[in-house]
Design a protein that fits this description.
With 314 residues, the protein is an alpha+beta fold. The protein folds into two domains: 2-185, Class II aldolase/adducin N-terminal domain (L-fuculose-1-phosphate Aldolase); 204-312, no CATH class. Helices cover 43% and strands 15% of the residues. The chain contains twelve helices and 13 strands. A seven-stranded mixed β-sheet has the order 3-2-1-4-7-6-5, sandwiched between helices. It has a four-stranded mixed β-sheet with strand order 8-12-11-10, with no helix packed on it. Helix 4 crosses helix 10 and helix 8 runs antiparallel to helix 10. The longest helix has 20 residues, at 2-21. The chain is globular, with a radius of gyration of 19 Å.
């Protein structure tokens, strides 16, 4: 009987993970990860897996005390406890709640890109959300979040140019917290416009040689050299270049009528191309004040963890 209850708890956790994964405004492609601590074990999403397709094989079951001891005492940041695990595994280990949900909220990425942190941080804290400056995904980020948790003792974290983390011991309350945070973001962006644009972009035809430019008024060259979130640099590192000023055979360029891809996009590339179009459509020509620079983005893309994710999602 106890085993059946345990199994039901894991299955329910998987269902909630799938809900997050199937909301494009919260989770795109292989991005995002969730975890469950149950007795002496922790279930963590495997690297490169889609939360939208969550099943028992999406998660790695590991002895919690072994992995906690490993990340607490291991000084070699380049070595993971298990190569199947997400790069974000330490985050799920250091936060002690039963459930940890990390997702890539598009609205949070937009907000962090166009708002000065000096103003935004206070508003976040006042709404019981801990702001976390951009740190490359991995153990350093996990340690920073753990330190901020000790200072503020809150359950939600705003990761600049990355996404959101929510933790807790009740799945339903976590989902309500996720919804409440997205509602709070409506103060910063036109959320109705975001929803409308998402519906439009999701029905785009397959990306082949070119696609109709949905935002002919936007100067995409303003985004050159600025990665807006980690998976931008990992899965879609190409910047859009104006056809009028193009001086090389860039993979992707544009004019008022079309965006010219000049290559066949993989499924994951298509997902992140849609993500970027959605973000660009909301930001428009506003100044980008927070972003991941080219050097940091390229180093992340070439890291062992991200090479694994790219191989899994070719």
């Amino acid at each position: 009987m106890y085993y059946k209850l345990l199994l039901v708890g894991v299955e329910s956790f998987i269902d909630y993970s799938k809900i997050i994964g199937n909301n494009f405004l919260l989770c795109q492609g292989p991005g995002g990860n969730t975890s469950l601590k149950e007795e002496e074990y922790i279930y963590i999403k495997k690297s490169g897996k889609f939360l939208s397709n969550s099943n028992i094989d999406t998660f790695k079951k590991i002895n919690y005390f072994e992995i906690e001891n490993y990340y607490t005492h291991n000084k070699d940041k380049a070595v993971k406890f298990d190569n199947e695990l997400s790069i974000e595994a330490p985050l799920h280990v250091f936060l002690k709640s039963k459930y940890v949900f990390h997702y890539h909220s598009i609205s949070s990425i937009i907000i962090s890109a166009i708002n000065e942190s000096t103003n935004l941080d206070n508003l976040l804290i006042n709404n019981k959300i801990i702001p976390i400056k951009y740190i490359r995904p991995g153990i350093d980020l996990a340690r920073e979040i753990s330190l901020e948790k000790q200072k503020h003792n809150l359950d939600a974290y705003f990761l600049y140019n990355h996404g959101i983390v929510v933790e807790g011991n009740n799945k339903s309350k976590i989902m309500k917290r996720v919804r409440d945070i997205e509602s709070f973001f409506n103060k910063f962006i036109d959320y109705k416009k975001l929803i409308k644009l998402n519906k439009t972009i999701q029905i785009f035809p397959n990306f082949k040689d070119k696609v109709k430019n949905p935002f002919p008024e936007i100067n995409f060259d303003l985004y050159k050299g600025k990665y807006l979130f980690p998976d931008h640099s990992v899965f879609f590192p190409d910047f859009l270049t104006s056809k009028n000023v193009q001086k090389n055979n860039a993979a992707i360029h544009y004019d008022k009528d079309y965006i010219y891809l000049n290559k066949k996009l993989t499924n994951v590339e298509s997902i992140y191309f849609k993500t970027l179009l959605l973000i660009y459509g909301l930001i428009g020509d506003k100044e980008i004040v927070n972003y991941i620079n080219t050097n940091d983005g390229e180093n992340l893309r070439k890291s062992d963890d991200e090479l694994i994710r790219r191989r899994v999602n070719r």
